[in-house]
Automatic annotation (TrEMBL), chains A, B, C:
This is Secondary thiamine-phosphate synthase enzyme. It comes from the Bacteria. It holds the Pfam family YjbQ. The lineage of its organism: Bacteria, Pseudomonadati, Pseudomonadota, Alphaproteobacteria, Rhodobacterales. Belongs to the UPF0047 family. PANTHER family: UNCHARACTERIZED PROTEIN YJBQ-RELATED, UPF0047 PROTEIN C4A8.02C.
């Protein structure tokens, strides 16, 4: 069983998709989410305190600064803007695919886990996530 | 086929679970391990020289220092202690899920590969790993 | 359905395997690629401008410098050369396994996505990737 989730982002940030994915899964098996882009990521993170998301974004902006930051002057792929190559680097560091076991119609997420798309570009983008659900024959 | 592996950790460090997982898998297919937490990670790493594990822990403690380190003063989510937000950041950087092909009852791990739970919190925690094995119908 | 892809590398760098993998997959289901090593990684990245690959390699060499770099003097696992422990660290940071949904015989890669093996050692290595394809019964 396959589908595509489409998310329109409005720049850098975390966009929660837990509910959308949750209402699609059924039965028992394993869910695969695959992001079809090289300048955004999928992420499972805490969905309770929004400060966690602020701090995550702040950390990754420091770990991989904008290309116009003096520490990043070694970058050569800069034609598409100072946020482009850092976006590719973050897309390498953070997951492009996630797999979550599904049992009795529910993803086996922990109590505090939410599923997010993390946008690494500054401007709005339309992002597609390919989803696949393997349903167990017998389990 | 699904199960849950439970590991009780005693603070920061790598806890090998290869043998426990190995004795659960059977047949041929693909194994999914999914960690139900946002302050620990799953990791496949060298299981020969224990120095590798020491160095891995040291590197990640330097890459993501404690919140009371001057370089981390931008963090805002600090109520649960100086090791909490760094734990979430490491949980973003390192895998929450692993998939390993299984053939003839054995995981296709390389000669030096072991499966680890990496605890990012300083104190003891009870960690659950949701496991799913897709067994091939015909292969 | 399982197979092994073997790649002989010639030191640090990205080696594209998209075409080899693409000609192996069929039907609809989900592909798992698992790298049987702890000093190399799998990566999905942009396959258009080669500068992206140069910049990725440059970033990771800065994030995880050679063990003879003064900032890395805390490393203890150095007997196998100054590139060995940094290779293990990069293998922790970057994916060891990838999952890609397959539909109608084609991987659901985005337009700019290629699949790469990233070699973290300086010298030539023979690398094995275990591949598994779950084919959907009904979808």
């Amino acid at each position: 069983m396959q589908t595509t989730f489409t998310i329109t982002t409005s720049g850098l940030g975390l966009y929660e998709i837990t509910q959308e994915v949750s209402s699609w899964v059924r039965g028992s098996g394993v869910l695969t989410l695959f992001l079809c882009h090289t300048s955004a990521s999928l992420l499972i993170q805490e969905n309770a305190d929004p400060d966690v998301q602020t701090d995550l974004m702040a950390f990754f902006s420091r770990l991989v600064p904008s290309a116009d930051n003096p520490t990043m002057q070694f970058l050569t792929h800069t034609l598409e803007g100072p946020d482009d190559m850092p976006a590719h680097i973050k897309a390498a560091l953070l997951p492009v695919s996630l797999q979550i076991p599904v049992l009795g119609g529910r993803m086996r997420l922990g109590r505090w886990q939410g599923i997010y798309l993390m946008e690494h570009r500054n401007s709005s983008h339309r992002r597609e996530i390919a989803a696949h659900l393997s349903v167990d024959g017998t389990s």
